[in-house]
Amino acid sequence: MSEPIDATNEDVVLQRQLDTDQGDQMVQLVELIADIDDVEPTELSPIYRDIDSLVSNFFGSQPPSRGDATLAFSYRGYRIRIKRDGRTTVHEVSA
Fold first, then answer.
1. Taking every annotated instance into account, which residue ranges of this chain make up the domain Halobacterial output (predicted)?
2. I need a surface site. Which of 2, 16, 24, 48 has the fewest CB within 10 A?
3. Host H or E run for residue 30
């Protein structure tokens, strides 16, 4: 996997490939964070309401091969970066 953007390997918590063919990447993101925190997905606070539509539009606007874009946002002490092809990197935010 390629080097995360604006990060060192020391702060990378997890790298995972989201299934961009599956309809709901938000469910995958919630499950990913729940795995990291070792909790059930239902125990997590809601991800920003705007992020849901943003992620859906991000994956639905162009095929992965047509553009190299990155979506980044913070949630629960992590910085989450998603590439258009589904590569997802989670960084721990330093206090």
1. 27-91
2. 2
3. helix 25-37
Interhelix angle 25-37/49-60, rounded to 10 degrees, is 120
Mind giving me the DSSP string for 11-25?
A: GEEEEEE--TTSS-H
Q: How many CA atoms lie within 13 A of 57 on its CB side?
A: 6
Supply the pTM of this predicted model. 0.71
Q: Which residue has the tokens 């539009």?
A: 57
The domains of the chain are located at: 9-92
